C-alpha cells in the first residue's frame, strides 16, 4: 500500500503552487499519494501563511488537533511563510512536529522528511532553477512561478522576511512550463510572483522585463489565455499597460493593490507611488481597455491613518470603482518596520473596514446589474457538484452554467442570465 499524504494549504496562490511542488516531489521520490483524511495519513503537512496575525494563532491550535487524530507513526511538517518566520520556535511550542520547512526551501521536502526535527528556513536559498516534478491539482488550472521572494520593503509586510530577496526564474524554464501545461490540457496559464512586473531581477544571463516575458509566453502555441498576479502599481509603466491592452492572449483583468488612497500613508507604507500616480494608471487602463476589470487590496487603519486619510481611500474607491476588493484591517507583523508604530484604535479600524466594504457592495451592485444579457467568453475549469461547470470570463467574472465535465478545459461563449455580487449564471450559446 502506498503512503498517504494530507496537505492543508493556507494563504496565496504562491502557496498553492508550492504545495503542488511538494506533492509532486513526495510522490516521485517517496511514493506518497494524496488523501483528504488526515487521520489515515502517514504525513501531514500544513503550508502556512503569515501575512496577518490570525492564521498564525490558528496554526498551533490546528497542530494540536492533528497531533491528537493522527496515526501514531504519522509525521507532521510545518511549511510555508510561518515556518520561515518562526523556525525552531514551532518545534519548541509543538514538540511533536517532525520538521519545519520554510517558504523558500520547498525543493528540500523529500530530504527534510527523513531528518527528524530538521528546520530548513534559509531565506537566501536559490531554488529558481530546481526541476520540480509534475503535479497539478487540476490540469486546467496551471500556476507557473516566475519569481521568488520580494525586493520591496513595504513597512506593513512580513513577506520579504519569509520569502527573501527577489530572484527570477529563467524565461526559458517559464516558457517550457507553459508548453507543458498546454500539452496536459490547459488553455490558460497563471503567472505568479510577489511582484510580477518587476520580473528580471538577478537573472544570471539575460536582461528581460515582464512585458517581454509576456510576449514570449504568449507565443506558446495552443495557449489562449494568460493571467498573472500580483503586479505592483509602481511598475505599471506605459509599455506594460500597452502590451496588456494589445496582446489578445492576456486576460483583461488587472490586480492593482492600492493599500491606501492617502499619499501620506502610502509614503509611510513605503509603497513608492502617490494617490495621483495610482489614479493615473487606473485611468490609462480603463481608457485603453474599456472592459478591463480591476481588483485591489486595501489595508485600513495603518498606523497614523487619520479620518482624512481614510476619506482619500474612499475617494479612490469611488473613482476607480474596483470590480473586486480584498480589504483588511491592519495587523501588526513581527520583523516589519510598522510593528513599532502606534496603532489606530481597533474599533475605529473595524468601522472603517465596514464602511469601505459597504460602499464597495453598493458599487458592485450597480456594476453587476449591467452584466445581465452580456455575451462573454468563458474558460471552464471546475466541475461543481450541483450540476454546473464553473469558469471565468476573460475579464474575470465568475460564471456558472449547467453542464458536465465535457466543458472542462474548453472556452465557450456564454450569455449571462443571472447576476449576483460573487457569481453569474449563464447559458452556453452556439
Ligand atoms: N496587515 C493587514 N493586511 C496586510 N497585507 C499584507 N500585510 C498586511 C498586514 N500587516 C495585505 C495587503 C496585501 C495582501 C496580500 O495582504 O493588502 O496586498
Ligand atoms: Fe503568500 Fe504572503 Fe501568505 Fe506568504 S505571507 S503565504 S507570500 S500571502
Main features:
binds 5'-deoxyadenosine; alpha/beta; Rossmann fold; Transcription Regulator spoIIAA; six-stranded parallel β-sheet; binds iron/sulfur cluster; single chain; 19 strands; five-stranded mixed beta barrel; 430 residues; 4 domains
Task: Give the helices and strands, then pairings.
Layout lengths: L2 E7 L3 H18 L1 E3 L8 E6 L4 H17 L5 E6 H6 L2 H5 L5 E4 L6 H4 L5 E3 L21 E4 L1 E2 L10 H5 L3 E2 L2 H13 L4 E5 L17 H9 L6 E5 L8 H9 L6 E3 L7 H6 L6 H14 L4 E8 L6 H14 L3 E6 L16 H24 L5 E9 L4 E6 L4 E5 L8 E9 L4 E5 L2
Parallel strand pairs: 1-2, 1-3, 3-4, 4-5, 5-6, 7-10, 10-11, 12-13, 13-14, 17-19
Antiparallel strand pairs: 8-9, 15-16, 15-18, 16-17, 18-19
Helix pairs in contact: 8-9, 11-12, 12-13
Task: Walk me through the structure.
The protein is α/β, with parallel strands linked by helices and 430 residues long. The protein folds into four domains: 3-120, 3-Layer(aba) Sandwich (Rossmann fold), CATH 3.40.50; 136-251, Transcription Regulator spoIIAA; 285-369, Transcription Regulator spoIIAA (2-Layer Sandwich), CATH 3.30.750; 372-428, OB fold (Dihydrolipoamide Acetyltransferase, E2P). Helices cover 33% and strands 23% of the residues. The protein has helices at 13-30, 53-69, 81-86, 89-93, 109-112, 159-163, 171-183, 210-218, 238-246, 263-268, 275-288, 307-320, 346-369, and strands spanning 3-9, 32-34, 43-48, 75-80, 99-102, 118-120, 142-145, 147-148, 167-168, 188-192, 225-229, 253-255, 293-300, 324-329, 375-383, 388-393, 398-402, 411-419, 424-428. The strands form five sheets. A six-stranded parallel β-sheet has the order 2-1-3-4-5-6, sandwiched between helices. A five-stranded mixed barrel has the order 15-16-17-19-18. A three-stranded parallel β-sheet has the order 7-10-11, sandwiched between helices. Helix 8 packs parallel to helix 9, helix 11 runs parallel beside helix 12 and helix 12 (307-320) runs parallel beside helix 13 (346-369). The N and C termini lie far apart (48 Å).
Amino acid at each position: 500500500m502506498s503512503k498517504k499524504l494530507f496537505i492543508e494549504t493556507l494563504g496565496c496562490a504562491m502557496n498553492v503552487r508550492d504545495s503542488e511542488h511538494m506533492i509532486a516531489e513526495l510522490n516521485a521520490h517517496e511514493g506518497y499519494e494524496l488523501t483528504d483524511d488526515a487521520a489515515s495519513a502517514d504525513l501531514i503537512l500544513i503550508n502556512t501563511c503569515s501575512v496577518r496575525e490570525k492564521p498564525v494563532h490558528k496554526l498551533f491550535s490546528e497542530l494540536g488537533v492533528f497531533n491528537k487524530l493522527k496515526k501514531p507513526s504519522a509525521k507532521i511538517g510545518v511549511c510555508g511563510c510561518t515556518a520561515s518566520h518562526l523556525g525552531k520556535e514551532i518545534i519548541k511550542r509543538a514538540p511533536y512536529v517532525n520538521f519545519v520547512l520554510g517558504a523558500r526551501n520547498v525543493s528540500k521536502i523529500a530530504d527534510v522528511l527523513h531528518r527528524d526535527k530538521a528546520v530548513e528556513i534559509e531565506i537566501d536559498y536559490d531554488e529558481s532553477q530546481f526541476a520540480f516534478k509534475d503535479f497539478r491539482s487540476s490540469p486546467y488550472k496551471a500556476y507557473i512561478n516566475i519569481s521568488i521572494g520580494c525586493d520591496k520593503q513595504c513597512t506593513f509586510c512580513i513577506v520579504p522576511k519569509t520569502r527573501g530577496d527577489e530572484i527570477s526564474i529563467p524565461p526559458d524554464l517559464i516558457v517550457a512550463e507553459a508548453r507543458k501545461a498546454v500539452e496536459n490540457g490547459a488553455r490558460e496559464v497563471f503567472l505568479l510572483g510577489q511582484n510580477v512586473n518587476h520580473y528580471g531581477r538577478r537573472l544570471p544571463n539575460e536582461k528581460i522585463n515582464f512585458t517581454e516575458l509576456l510576449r514570449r509566453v504568449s507565443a506558446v502555441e495552443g495557449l489562449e489565455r494568460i493571467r498573472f498576479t500580483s503586479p505592483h502599481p509602481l511598475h505599471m509603466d506605459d509599455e506594460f499597460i500597452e502590451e496588456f491592452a494589445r496582446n489578445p492572449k492576456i486576460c483583461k483583468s488587472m490586480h492593482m493593490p492600492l493599500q491606501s488612497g492617502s499619499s501620506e500613508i502610502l509614503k509611510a507604507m513605503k509603497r513608492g507611488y502617490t494617490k495621483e500616480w495610482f489614479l493615473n494608471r487606473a485611468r490609462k487602463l480603463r481608457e485603453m481597455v474599456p472592459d478591463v476589470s480591476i481588483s485591489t487590496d486595501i489595508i485600513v487603519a495603518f498606523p497614523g491613518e487619520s479620518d482624512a486619510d481614510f476619506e482619500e481611500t474612499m475617494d479612490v474607491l469611488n473613482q476607480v470603482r474596483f470590480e473586486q476588493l480584498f480589504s483588511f484591517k491592519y495587523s501588526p507583523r513581527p520583523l516589519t518596520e510598522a510593528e513599532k508604530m502606534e496603532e489606530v484604535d481597533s474599533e475605529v479600524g473595524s468601522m472603517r473596514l465596514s464602511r469601505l466594504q459597504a460602499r464597495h457592495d453598493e458599487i458592485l451592485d450597480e456594476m453587476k446589474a449591467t452584466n445581465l444579457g452580456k455575451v462573454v467568453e468563458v474558460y471552464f475549469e471546475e466541475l461543481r457538484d450541483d450540476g454546473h461547470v464553473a469558469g471565468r470570463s476573460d475579464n474575470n467574472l465568475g460564471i456558472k452554467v449547467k453542464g458536465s465535465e465535457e466543458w472542462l478545459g474548453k472556452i465557450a461563449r456564454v450569455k449571462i442570465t443571472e447576476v449576483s455580487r460573487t457569481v453569474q449564471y449563464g447559458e452556453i450559446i452556439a
